[in-house]
Amino acid sequence: MSARINTILIIGAGGGIGEALARRFHSLGKKIIATGREQDREKLTQLARDLPGLQFRVWDLTHLETLQTEVRGILTDFPKLDSVFINAGIQTYYDIFQQPADDQTVIRELTTNLTAPILVAQAFASHLLSLAQSGIKTNLFLTSSSLAYFPVPFYPAYCPAKAGIAAFAKIMRMQLEATGCKKDMMNVVEVVPPYVDTPLNAAHRDKTDELQGGKDKAVQPMPLGEYVDKFFAELEQTKEDGSFRDEIGVGFGAQLAALWRKGYRKALSESGMAE
Fold first, then answer.
1. Which pLDDT tens digit goes with each residue over 261-275?
2. What is the CATH number of the domain that holds 156?
3. What whole-number distance in Å separates Cα of residue 243 and Cα of residue 182?
4. Are the CB atoms for 191 and 254 separated by under 8 Å?
5. Which Pfam families does the UniProt entry name for this protein (predicted)?
6. Which residues pair with 249 in a beta bridge?
7. Which pTM value belongs to this model?
8. What's the pLDDT tens digit per position in 19-31?
9. How many domains does the chain have?
């Protein structure tokens, strides 16, 4: 892994998995650029104090009108950026029939979890491809979720948004193959976490536990530290040519990604649409 990543942009590093990834990559000697929303400014400032050399940008992905400007600014300051990790996300619980969320809440969730990550990936794609074609190995990580493959009734906007990210990662990888870029030079990686103990669902965790029969019966999250340890262990399990695996799942996320490969991926290959 060390040979593939030198400078990495982590989008959504103001807390949870993103912050934990920033800390671990920094401990491995990587140059980190971290982003978060305005409400994460103090956390990002502290992160920069804790991790010498880390730089951060306050960037709210829902402000789509500034997205291209933000990307250009980052590439101007970091022209050798070789890795982008798109990890930002929000999650809301609501009942479509009993108490539906208002339109703006749903739009914000879909924008944060699906529209903006796709636009960010597209905005960095040509830069990463150009570096790869010049001989510098590059990587694009897109965080989906085990819920992309296993939708639950609690999250009517989050689950389809993450399913969209899973599909987009696969499509992007197939289009990358058509460019003729060597497979070991640019990797598009779907990151598939299980349910992890982060602030993502803090506002509604008690409610979803209750709907599962109470905390004693409800599915409980994997501790954040355990997830990060397992993620980095999986990251080291590269292909023979040194490339990252197409999907890096942990726990339930790994099981579901494997099921997709055994089923839909096999059907896709047999259709002639992918190798």
1. 888 777 777 776 666
2. 3.40.50.720
3. 10
4. no
5. adh_short
6. 192
7. 0.95
8. 999 999 999 999 9
9. 1
